Amino acid sequence: MKKFRKVLDGLTTSSPVNPGGSPGCGSAAGTPSAAPTPRELEIQETLMSEHFQICKTVRHGFPYQPTALAFDPVQKILAIGSRSGGIRILGRPGVDCHSQHESGAAVLQMQFLINEGALVTACADDTLHLWSLRQRLPAILHSLKFNRERITFCHLPFQSKWLYVGTERGNTHIVNIESFILSGYVIMWNKAIELSTKTHPGPVVHLSDSPKDEGKLLIGFESGTIVMWDLRAKRADFRIYYDEAIHSVSWHHEGRQFMCSHSDGSLSMWNMRNTAKPFQVTFPHGKTQRDGRKESCKPILKVEYKTSRNSSEAFVIFSGGLSYDKAGRRPTLTIMHGKAITVLEMDYPIVDFMVLCETPYLNEVQEPYAVVVLLEKDFVVVDLTQSNFPIFENPYPMDVHESPVTCTAYFADCPPDIIPVLYSIGAKHKKTGYSHKEWPVSGGTWTVGSQTYPEIIITGHADGSIKFWDATAITLQMLYKLKTSKVFEKPKTGDMGRSADLVEEDPYAVQMISWCPQSRIFCVVGISAHVILYRFSKHDANTIITSLELRLQCEMEDVISPSDTENTPCFSDPSGHSPQPQPPSPRSNTPDSVRDSIPCLKVKDRMIRMPPGYQAELVVQLLWVDGEPPQQITCLDLNSAYGLLALGNCNGLAVVDYLQKTILLCMSTLELYGSADPFQRLTRSPRKNRQSTSDFCMRGLSNFYSDSKKRIRTSYQSLTELSDNQVSLDLERSKSPTSAPYTPSLHNDPRGTGEPVSNLRSCHYSPVFYLLDNVKGPGRKLSLPTDLKTDLESRENSFSRSRSSSVSSIDRETKEAVTTLQFAESYGRKSDSLPTPCLWVGTSLGLVLIIPMSIPTDEQERQEDPVTVAPTGTVLMLKGSVLRFGFLDCGGALINSPYEVWRDQHAPDDPDRPRKRKLVNFSPSSSQEACGDGHLAVVCSERQAKVFYMPSQACLYVHNITESSFVLRADVVSVSNSVCLACFCANGHIMILSLPSLRPLLDVSYLPLTDMRIARTFCFTNGGQALYLCSPTEIQRITYSQEMCVNLQETLGELFTPIETPEAQNRGFLKGFFGGNAQTFDREELFGEASAGKASRSLAQHIPGQGGIEGMKAAAGGVVGDLARARIALDERGQRLGELEERTALMMTSAETFSKHAHELMLKCKDKKWYQF
């Protein structure tokens, strides 16, 4: 190996690789460059293309913009439809499935085929879909597209295969569920109403069959017309014309009366014996005014009328109906039970609700036990069995969006003890007062898979809160919640000046998080340019939070001479505090022009009692400088073994020693290079007029980016094109900046239309941060829809034709942002023989700097002696903004960063076991004996990936990831006991590259990037998993591992479980004889093709599903499926035999009665003469 190293060094000295790489080096993907090849390293790459496949695994959170609700009372599973065409099916914890209509049309209504493992959905594109739930992933069996009419309401009677469909024209059609074909039987609106009626009744808003007689169909029209249609006679039994519009209808279980809800906030009760007028009209929330009239009320959108055995009084449950004069009242659900009226206020508007009952039969006493309430942003289940109506504790993670999510982090294969510890701390702060009964939505089955490992998802929110979630297997459970706002003083109303508007309503919004699971040290970056460092403790403590302040506000426009020390205001006092003796308070009314050396927020400076869990130890804040607000922090890294914290922004870099609470380094990026700056940047004279940036700086990075983009975007774009060719760059630099006038093309004018995601340049900010949108109120969306159809290629071509002017723009703007940071055991210089602690720094211009550090190894010395940081000027170069670093040993194994083993600093002292720092170090030389010293460094930018051999800094491999787009997120991850580079691009492509050879293993156009939310929250993790925020309320987890895709079916829950359908109650002879013969109604005979004929082909179009009925049989195949179908067939046969037996018994009784009466009459008249009659 020594011989190989000498060869490497010799070749590097004789023909060094250009910092940007030669053109041949980057032309072919994964091709070794002219530099020394790594063949002698003998790295066996085990990953192949067959190991990778993209698929969605599970979706967590509340369904975004819900529109519909359905429940199967036998299977006890629940479905929620959304405006985007999504369906979420929920059962017991672990049974959680998301499906999507390909059309993306909103789901208007859903109907379960009760206890049959199927679901019917009606969408806004006037299409009916039949979903099979007998497999783990639901599939569409049939679709029926209506061409001439809009669907408004659907009704499927229990144990019926005929679906009633009401339309906007007022017609009612009937669909066969099995074949999904329209019946020729149609109830036309002009037949339903009287011929003398001159107006159209409006759309159908309600359909239901009478509990007393299934042959009678109640049709409710929007105008207030109600028709009882006799299906056998094909005529109307009665018609009701009411003055107020109807929103819903609900039957009493005996079928003798029904209740309607109206647009004026009233409830009307109707008796079947007298339909001329309602026998009762009530305004539940309308009070009688002095003139005797009822006050106007809001519409009652839905009403449910349910009976109970234990009480003679029925439950009447409805939404809406409040009076208009009470402004500001929240949406309500009203429960009327006898004379008792309970009004439940909801936090969000009610979308739909459904009363859960013990029986699926409508003609039996309903026995309601719960109410499921679907809100716009929440999901509530109310217990009806207790008088105070408590709610059930929701087992699903429906509160991900409690405050808008601003960032995410995903950690797979965590230490096994971290989840129980976080859960035990978080359980102490759980809410109480929930119902003690079991969660009513308990359908399906789910078991934890055998191949599971601890996984944790962390979400940062707009209100400054942090949530830790247990994401093991496919579940998501809240573990612990941390509020970062408690570190700061609350702003007083009297001090709310201009600075209070700086960050609007979300001064604590979380931009980024950094977590070391082994040491349990946690860092939070906030939008107010602050960093909070937390340590974990199982004990409460009384501590004072240390605050450090940084002046990191270098403007290159002010640089006169590189050697002029007066123009380097970035260097701070070693104490970390401002040199001003008495700076003004952060929330004072100081004008922006004179605001200087103050932070945006004020840290609590008193003793604070901190509960067990994460306890704040240090706060680092960037200061205002000469009326300029601090720029947001763009990257952060912490290392618990070193005790150091590094942060960067568009001005420069700072390194903080959090053990000694001191600032080690605070420099601009230009000063970090020293004489090794690869670009000869022109100096500028000071600006005459300093325009304050306070209007945009702290209002979210998207606004700030759009302003700074006008100055830097063009220069960076040209620079990245030229950075891979040092010769052409030198030729262009030799020209005068004024030799060619700068004429930006119209295609690149930032003052035109808004910049789409695919045009955003990450040259100034890490992708996680420059995509952070405005964070205002808690209800405001954090992401805006973005048009992605703009092509980058034409813009790049326009730049390639004007390189001379582009180079002059380099001179115009020399500000350079720090985009990524990572501590590692590495080599700061080519001459180093041993690895030392280093900080790798990546910038927006594609440059990489390596900063070696000297850290005392003794624990006592580490607490007292200073850490020295010495920038060496070592520079590597790539195309595009640097995003990620990774380190491999010479065997191709991943080198993890060293860390400190967690110890509880607030635990009681134990003299036998002194608390000493225990460090775990993964040195590159510790895992390689035959290879000798050295390691491989993987550097990924938004356009390119390179692998360098350290310490010689030779470029071994280079791969141009994308030309037409740019990488948003890149991570070095472990998959199948090997390592790879995972990339997510702005054009929606997910790419996997092998390491170290950078061979493309996967390139899939997975996700069209529709908004910045996805870009801001997308992250990879080990084990072939990733996640992103697919909507403001939902987290989508995906996998790119073939093995996990294959085993996905085993990890998901079963939606359908074979259950016996409950038997109907015996009606008794008298009730059956005098109550009508509802059981004799045969829909097949009435609606079948033999009697009703065929429907018009132009009315609706049948679309077969992915597998049709054969697909359902195959999906539900196997012994379980066959047994379930056989059991259902036996149930149906037994039910029909029971009906036949009842009718036979009824006929025999009637015949015996007739025979008896005839015999009595014969005896009475036997001896009479003819004239005696």
UniProtKB/TrEMBL annotation:
SMART domains, A to Z: WD40
Q: Name one Pfam family in it.
A: WD40
Outline the extent of the V-SNARE coiled-coil homology domain. 1108-1168
Query: Known Gene3D superfamilies for this protein?
Result: 1.20.5.110, YVTN repeat-like/Quinoprotein amine dehydrogenase
Question: Where is it localised?
Answer: Cell membrane; Cytoplasm
Q: Which domain of life is it from?
A: Eukaryota
Name the residue ranges with Basic and acidic residues bias: 788-798
Record's bilayer topology term:
Peripheral membrane protein
One Gene Ontology biological process: protein transport
Entry GO terms, CC:
cytoplasm; plasma membrane
For this protein, the record's PANTHER family field holds: LETHAL 2 GIANT LARVAE PROTEIN, SYNTAXIN-BINDING PROTEIN 5-LIKE
Q: Which family does the UniProt entry place this protein in?
A: Belongs to the WD repeat L(2)GL family.
Q: What is this protein called?
A: Syntaxin-binding protein 5-like
> Corresponding gene?
stxbp5l
